[in-house]
Structure formats: structure tokens, C-alpha cells
């Protein structure tokens, strides 16, 4: 009876839609992170089937943060900029820069998607930006989310690139500075474009 029940349970899991299994996997991995089981980053690095999962995780975090920007008075432009910034810059660009710095300067071993998958779950705390609309506390909560994301990013990079702590820390710092500068440039260009558009329409 036990064997039959066990077989039926496994069969039920196998026939679940792919999306359901993916979201169950996401919940399991988030639970592990909450329990400070950081081996999840190593699992993500080696899970070649988790690319879509990584995009979904970052997409949800980016969307929640962007909604917080919208609710706090940032307007649709602020919503769009926040959404693109987290997905394209904080995740994809940071993954590429980190991979490049870690492999070229410190002899780390990883390709782009190995780093990107690991860093995807480090983006989760940015979802706290959803609470940005709360007076006084919203900005503080958003800052805490950014700092937590940076800490998790360090742990993810250390696992993905197989680097010792000191080299992983240097990789994070160098990569973060490069991405921060590029982000400022992008936001400046968006600001100039918005100002120019307003001047033309006015």
C-alpha cells in the first residue's frame, strides 16, 4: 500500500503543469533563503532549467517595486523606469559585469546564466520597494531592501563564481560601482528626455 501511495504521489507531481511546479520551486527556494540556507545559490548556478524561473522571480520583484514607485507619486514614467532599472540593470547588467570582473580579474569560473540565475533570488528584497508609499517609513524600508539585496548578491556571487570571500567582495564592489555609474547615466538621460518632451509639448 505504501509503495502504491508513494508511486501515486510522485505521478501526481509529474503531471502538474510546468508553471505550477516552477512556482512551488520558487516558494521552496525562498523558504530556504529565509532559513538562511544559502546553498540555494549553488543549486541555482547548476540548475540549467531555472532560467525562466529566474526571470519570473526578478520580474515579480521589479513589478512590486515599480508599483510602490507609482503609489508614492512617481507617475507612470517612474513606474516604467523602476521596472526596467531592476530587471535590465540591477539584474542583467549586474550579472554580466559581475561575471566579467569575476572571471577576468579573479579567475572565477562561471558563465553569464550561472551568475544571473544565482543573482535572481538576490533581487527578491527589492520587492520591499512596494511599501515605498508609506509616509516616513517607506523610504527606510526601501533602503533596507536594497541593502539586503546587496548582501544576498555577495553570497550569490561567491557561490556562482566559486571565489573566496575577499575576491567575491572585491567583485561585488567593483561590479556595483560600474553598474551604479551606468544607472546614473541612464536616469540622467531619461530625465533629460522627459524634460525635453515636456518643454516641446508645453
SSE arrangement:
Blueprint lengths: L1 H13 L3 H17 L5 H7 L4 H56 L5 H9 L16 H24 L4 H37 L1
Helix pairs in contact: 3-5, 3-6, 4-5, 4-7, 5-6, 6-7
SS elements, strand count: 0
Q: Supply the helix-strand structural class.
A: mainly alpha
What is the share of helical residues? over 70%
Report how far the terminal alpha carbons are from each other.
77 Å
For the report, how would you describe the main beta sheet? none
Helix count, DSSP H or I runs of 4 or more residues:
7
What string gives the helices and strands in order? HHHHHHH
The value of Rg in angstroms is 19 Å
Relative strand content = under 5%
Query: How would you state the average pLDDT, rounded?
Result: 87
Would you identify the regions where 5 or more consecutive residues have pLDDT less than 50? none
- Basic shape: globular
For this structure, the quaternary state is single chain
Feature tags:
202 residues, globular
Brief sketch in words of this structure:
With 202 residues, the protein is an all-alpha fold. Helices cover 81% and strands 0% of the residues.
Can you walk me through this structure?
The protein is built from 7 helices and no strands. Helix 6 (137-160) crosses helix 7. The chain starts with a helix and ends with a helix. It is mostly helical and 202 residues long.
Amino acid at each position: 500500500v505504501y509503495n502504491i501511495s508513494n508511486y501515486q504521489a510522485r505521478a501526481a507531481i509529474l503531471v502538474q503543469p510546468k508553471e505550477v511546479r516552477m512556482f512551488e520551486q520558487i516558494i521552496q527556494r525562498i523558504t530556504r533563503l529565509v532559513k538562511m540556507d544559502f546553498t540555494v545559490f549553488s543549486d541555482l548556478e547548476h540548475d540549467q532549467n531555472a532560467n525562466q524561473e529566474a526571470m519570473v522571480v526578478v520580474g515579480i520583484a521589479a513589478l512590486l517595486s515599480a508599483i510602490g514607485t507609482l503609489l508614492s507619486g512617481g507617475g507612470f514614467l517612474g513606474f516604467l523606469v523602476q521596472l526596467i532599472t531592476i530587471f535590465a540593470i540591477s539584474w542583467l547588467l549586474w550579472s554580466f559585469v559581475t561575471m566579467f570582473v569575476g572571471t577576468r580579474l579573479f579567475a572565477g569560473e562561471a558563465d553569464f546564466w550561472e551568475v544571473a540565475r544565482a543573482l535572481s533570488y538576490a533581487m527578491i528584497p527589492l520587492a520591499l520597494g512596494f511599501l515605498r508609499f508609506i509616509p516616513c517609513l517607506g523610504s527606510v524600508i526601501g533602503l533596507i531592501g536594497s541593502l539586503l539585496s546587496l548582501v544576498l548578491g555577495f553570497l550569490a556571487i561567491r557561490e556562482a563564481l566559486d571565489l573566496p570571500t575577499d575576491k567575491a567582495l572585491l567583485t561585488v564592489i567593483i561590479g556595483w560601482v560600474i553598474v551604479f555609474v551606468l544607472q546614473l547615466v541612464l536616469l540622467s538621460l531619461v530625465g533629460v528626455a522627459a524634460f525635453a518632451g515636456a518643454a516641446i509639448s508645453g
